[in-house]
Amino acid sequence: MQWEKVMGLEVHLQLATQSKIFSSSATTFGAAANSQTNPLDVALPGTLPVLNHSAVTQAIVFGLGIGADIGRVSRFDRKNYFYPDLPKGYQISQFFQPIVKEGIFDVPMEDGSLFPVRILRAHLEEDAGKSVHDAIPGHTGIDLNRAGTPLLEVVTEPDFRTATQVVAYLKALHALVTYLGISDGNMSEGSMRCDVNLSLRPKGESEYGTRTELKNINSFRFIERAIQIEADRQQDLLDSGDTVTQETRLFDPDKDETRAMRSKEVANDYRYFPDPDLLPIVIDDDTIDQIRASLPELPTAKRARYISDLGLGDYDANLLTQDRVTAEFFEATCTICNNPKAAANWIVGELSAALNRVGNTINDCAIRPDGLAALITRIDDGTLSSKMAKTVFDALWAGESDVDRIILDKGLKQVSDAGALEAIVDELIAANSAQVDQYRAADASKQKKLIGFFVGQAMKASKGQANPQLLNQLLKEKLSAS
Amino acid sequence: MAKAVNTLAALSQQLRTGSVSSRELTEDSLSRIARLNPALNAVITSCEDRALAAAAQADKALASGDVSPLLGIPMLHKDIFCTRDVRTTCASKMLAEFIPPYSATVVNRLETAGMISLGKCNMDEFAMGSSNETSFFGAARNPWDTARVPGGSSGGSAAAVAAGFATLATGTDTGGSIRQPAALCGITGLKPSYGRVSRYGMIAFASSMDQAGPMARTAEDCALVLSAMAGSDALDSTCSDQPVPNYAETLEQSISGLRIGVPKEFFSHHLDAAVADAIGRAIKELEQAGAIIVDVSLPSTDLGVSTYYVIAPAEASANLSRYDGVRYGYRCENPADLEDLYTRSRSEGFGPEVKRRILVGTFTLSAASYDQYFMKAQQVRRVIANEYDTVLDNVDVIAGPSAPNTAFVLNDQSKSITDMYMEDVFTIGANLAGLPAISVPAGLVNGLPVGMQLIGRRFDEARLLNVAHQYQKRTDWHTLSPDLGGLV
After folding, report:
1. Are residue A22 and residue A129 in the same domain, yes or no?
2. Between chain B's N and C termini, which has fewer beta carbons within 10 Å?
3. Both A399 and A468 in a single domain?
4. Does the pLDDT at position B362 exceed 60?
5. What does the pLDDT look like over B193-233, one tens digit per residue?
6. Domain of residue A446, CATH code
7. H-run or E-run covering B399
8. Does A96 touch chain B if contact means CB atoms closer than 8 Å?
9. Residues A401 and A451 in one domain
10. Boundary residue ending a domain (A373, A390, A409)
11. What 3-state class would DSSP assign to B83?
12. Is residue A172 included in any domain, yes or no?
C-alpha cells in the first residue's frame, strides 16, 4: 500500500530575555551549575513568581510576525508532575488561554513556492532544570540554571506531509525568530527544540492514523533521519497488519533508531489549573499597535522585495533572507556599492563558499560589508578584473580591510589608460613582424586564435594589469591597419 | 479572669514617654514565654538573643526621638512566615529544620517599623486545621482552659496574645484561621481583603485565599499594625496597589446610621444556642450605638465549606509538591531510587491532615473529576462572592458569629473530620469572596470566649476597624484575660 506521512510540530523556542520568566536570575548559557538561581528558582517556600514582561512582549512580537491573533486575555496554568529538575513540582505554562492564537506561517520552499503552515497556538512557559548524570559518580546532580528560562512553544496543525516540508518550516521559523530578535534559535544549545507528531495513512485517505511523538530532536540533520526511521517503522507495522501504539519515542542518532520512552515517563495526568499566584495577562490595542510598529521587515517580505525591486533570482533571494545577519550584510553592502546583483553573487558565491569551508558564520568572518562593497565598486569602475578581484577578496578574507590599499600594495591596478597600452602594442607589433604578417594573411576565424599570442605578450609586458577589453580592441585596430 | 493591663497602643505610649524601655518589654515577654509556654505550647521557636539585640537598637532609636508607633514593641510571628536565619517550620516535620535565607515581606515591614520579633508561633501543619492539633510540634493549648484547643490554624498566635506573651502576633487566614482562633481565645483578629497584604515569604497553603493579618487585643492595635503590614509589593503580583489609609485615623468615626446586615443563614442549626445569644446581644450593642440592623440573606452559605474543601486542597496539592526531599526539607533515610525518595520523604514528612488534603486536591484536579469538582467549585465560588457583593451594596458591614461554638476539648474523638471542617462555616465566605473580616471578643459562654465576626467591602478595612473599635469602646470583653496563675 502507498502510505502518506502526516506530521505536526511542537517547537520550543527559548526567548532572548536577560532574566528568567518569573525571577530576576540571568539566563546566560553555560554558566557554572546552579550559579544562576535564587530562592524562587529553587522553589523555596513562600517565594512567588513575578512575570517578566519582556517575555510577553516577545511572544506578541512572534504572534504578529506570523499574523496570528493575540489573546487579549491570556493566563498561566500549573502543569503538575514530579521530576527532580522541576523544582516546584509543577511547571508554569499556558494551557487554557495561550497568548498567541491561530495564524498562518508562509514557508518558502526551494522551488520558490510558499507552503502555508497553520499555527494552532503559541504559549509561554518556563523551562525545567537539568539532571546531570556524569558530574558526581553514583549520583544524579541537579542544575537549576535553566529552570525558569522563558520558552515559547509553537504548535502547528498536522499540515506536513514530507520531511522536506518539516525542515523548510524549521529553517523559516529559525529565520523568523532571529529576524525578530526574540530567540537565537541555537539548536545545539537547546534554544530551539523540536517534537514531531507523526502518523501514516493510506494515500488518499482523509482520516488520521495513530500518531507517535518524537521528542527533542536537536539538529536539522537528525530531523530528516528521525522522520524517515519512524515512518519506516510505522509502515512495517501497518504493512504486516499490526497497529501503531500512541506513545512518545526518542530518536537515538547513535543507534539510528527510535525507541519508546518508558510509559511511566509519559503516562501523566498533568492536572492543569489556573495558577493563583499570577494575574491574567491583559493586552490592549495600543500595546499591540506599538509592538507592531516596532517590528523589523520579515523574511517573506524581504524575499519578495529582493526579487521584485532588486531583480534577484529566487535562489539568491532565499539564501540571502534565511537569517537576519546575512540579509543585513547584503543590504549594507548594496547601500554602499549600489549593485545588488554583484553583492548577491559575491555573498552567495565566494563568501558562502569560504564560510562553509571553515564552518563560520557571516558575523565571525573578517570581511565586512564596506570591504565587499569597495571591492565591487572597483570592479564596476574597471579598476579590477574579475581575476584580480578574487585576489583582493582573499586579502579581505585574510583580514585586510582597505581595498584600495590592497590594490596598491599588490600592484593590482588594471591599466585602462589607452596611451600606455598603445605604447605596449606598438612595441609588440614592431618586434614580431613575422607573427604580424601571419595574422594579417589569416582569415577571420584563424585571426581569433592568432590574436591570443599578442594578448599574452601584452599581458606579460603589463604584468597582467592591462584591461583585457581595451587591449583586445587596440590590438585588433593596430593589427588590421597595414 | 483578670483585666488585661496592656495593649499595643498603651505600650507605644509608654515607650515614647520613656516610662518603659523596649529591652524591659522584651525581657518581660521572653520570661513570660519561658514560664508559660511549657503549659501552652504556643511558641515553637523563640529567639532571645535576636530579640534583645533588636530591642537595644529600638531603645537607641527611641532615645534619639524616633516616634514611630510600632518601634520597640515585642511581637510574635506565626511560623508560616519565613524569617531570615531563623528556622521556619510551618509546624511540619517536612520543614522542621528549614532555615530560610530571606524574610517574608510582612516580617520585613514590621521589623522596619521597629517591632521586636520574639519568635515563631505554633499552628496547624501547613495551616491545615481548625484546632492546632495537626502541628508536628504538638497542639497549642487554649489559655482559658488548657484542656481545650485554641482554634486554628493560627492557634499558637491566638493563645500567645491571650496569654500576654506579646500584644501582637501575626496570623494567616485561608478559611478562618485568624478569626476562629481569635474568637476561641478572646482576642481581636483581622483578615484583610485578598491582596491587601503581601504573601511573599508566607508559606503557601491555598494561594487564592491566603491572607496575613494582625491578631491583637483590640481593633485599635490591629489598625496600627495593618497600616504597617499592608500595601503593594513587587514580589507578589496578587498584592494590590490600592493606597493604604492610616487606619487609626478613622477609628473614632460615629457608626450612627451605618447599615449592618445580619444574614439569617449565620444563625442556622450549626450555631450553638448560647453563642447565638451572645452574638445577638453584641449586635444589639451596635444598634444602640446608632447602627441600623438589616436582615439580609446569603443563601449559599452552606455551600461554602464544600466549595472551599475542593478549591483549597486543589491549590495546596500543587503548592506542596515542592516538598519532595530533593533540594531541602525532610528527606527519608537511604532512598532506594527516585520513586522511593519521593514516596517516603512525603509519606514520612507530612502529617495525616496534610496528606488527606493533598490526596483530595490531586483527585479534584484529575482529568476525570476536574469539571465535576474543581470547575463546579469555581462556579459556586463566584455565586457566593456575588451574594456577598449584592448584600454589601445594601449594607456597610455584615455581622454574625465567627465560629459555631466556643473552644472544644483537645483530642475530641467524637468530632469527625467534617465536623472539624464545619468550624469554618461562617468564616469561609469572606475568603472565597476575598473580603476583609474581623473577629472581636463578644462575650463568654461557660467561661469561654465568643467572637463576633464583621465582614466588610473589599479594601474597606477602615470601616471594619471603625465599627470594631466603636464596639470595643462600649464593651469590655476584649479587656478580659484568662487566669494563668495555675499554669506556672
Report:
1. yes
2. C
3. no
4. yes
5. 999 999 999 999 999 999 999 999 999 999 999 999 999 99
6. 1.10.10.410
7. strand B397-401
8. no
9. no
10. A409
11. strand
12. yes
Q: What angle do CA B178, B183, B187 make, to 5 degrees?
A: 85
Same domain for A95 and A169?
A: yes
Mean pLDDT of A203-221: 88
Interchain contact, A50 vs B327, CB within 8 Å: no
Instruction: Look at residue A482 in the predicted model and tell me its pLDDT.
Output: 57
* Structural domain containing residue A65: 3-287
CB contact at 8 A, A105 and A66: yes
As for how many domains chain A has, the answer is: 3
Catalytic sites of B, residue numbers: 78, 153, 177
Which of A21, A37, A44 best tests the B interface by mutation, with the highest count of B CBs <10 A?
A44
Give, in order, the Cα–Cα distances in Å from B214 to each of B91, B201, B227: 19, 16, 10
Interface contact flag, B318 A82, Cβ < 8 Å? no
Let me know whether A200 and A93 are in one domain: yes
User: Please, are residues B15 and B71 in contact by the beta-carbon 8 Å criterion?
Assistant: yes
For B321, nearest residue in chain A (alpha carbons): A89
In this complex, the residue of B204, B326, B362 whose CB is nearest that of residue A46 is B204
Instruction: State how far residue B204 is from chain A, nearest Cα, in angstroms.
Output: 6
B203 and A78 within 8 Å at the Cβ level: the answer is no
Measured between CB atoms, does B318 come within 8 Å of chain A? yes
Q: Which of B176, B173, B131 is nearest to B155 (CA)?
A: B131
Residue A282 CA from chain centroid, whole number: 33
pLDDT of residue B28: 96
Residue A292 in domain: no
A237 domain-assigned: yes
What pLDDT score was predicted for residue B2? 45
Is the pLDDT confidence value at B5 over 60? no
Hey, is the C-beta of B88 within 8 angstroms of any chain A C-beta?
yes
**Closest CA–CA distance from residue B210 to any residue of chain A (Å):** 11
B320 chain-A contacts, CB cut-off 8 A: 89
Count CB neighbours of A113 within 10 A. 10
pLDDT tens string A235-253:
999 999 999 998 889 888 8
Taking contacts as CB-CB distances below 8 angstroms, the residues of chain B near A89 are 318, 320-322, 324
B324 touches chain A (CB under 8 A): yes
Q: Taking CB atoms and an 8 Å limit, are A45 and B90 in contact across chains?
A: yes
Q: Does A142 touch chain B (CB under 8 A)?
A: yes
Q: Which of A287, A319, A336 is the last residue of a domain?
A: A287
CA distance A212 to chain B (A): 22
Query: What ranges do the domains of chain B cover?
Result: 2-257+437-442+451-487
- Distance of residue A207 Cα from the nearest chain B Cα, in angstroms: 26
Cβ atoms of B205 and B312 within 8 Å: the answer is: yes
Is A436 inside any structural domain? yes
Report d(CA A436, CA A207) in Å as an integer. 82
User: Is the domain of A375 the same as that of A461?
Assistant: no
Say how many residues make up chain B.
488
Q: Are residues A175 and A86 in the same domain?
A: yes
pLDDT of residue A437: 86
Enter the ipTM. 0.96
CATH 3.90.1300.10 assigned to domain B2-257+437-442+451-487? The reply is yes
